[in-house]
Amino acid sequence: MTRCPICTKPTAAASKPFCSERCREVDLNKWFTASYAVPAVELDDVDDESLEAAAQLLIDPDESH
Fold first, then answer.
1. By the 8 A CB rule, do 17 and 4 touch?
2. What are the pLDDT digits (tens) for 10-62?
3. Residue 53 sits in a domain of what CATH number?
4. Which phi and psi angles does 57 have, rounded to 5°?
5. Among 13, 16, 26, 56, which residue has the fewest nearby CB atoms (within 10 Å)?
6. How many domains does the chain have?
7. Distance CA 63, CA 37 (A)
């Protein structure tokens, strides 16, 4: 059984992965107020060759040589 990430009650199909509309809105508010954040890579810490190689993989993932 899947649990709500906000309150750990069982999830409801209508609000999955949350148990209710309230918990869904609590989670959304955490994103809006920056309580949650997606980690970022500072470009100063990445060398140009690595950045270009990663970009090339996004453009053509089959050419991994």
1. yes
2. 999 998 999 999 999 999 999 999 888 888 767 666 677 877 888 888 887 67
3. 3.30.50
4. -65, -35
5. 13
6. 1
7. 32
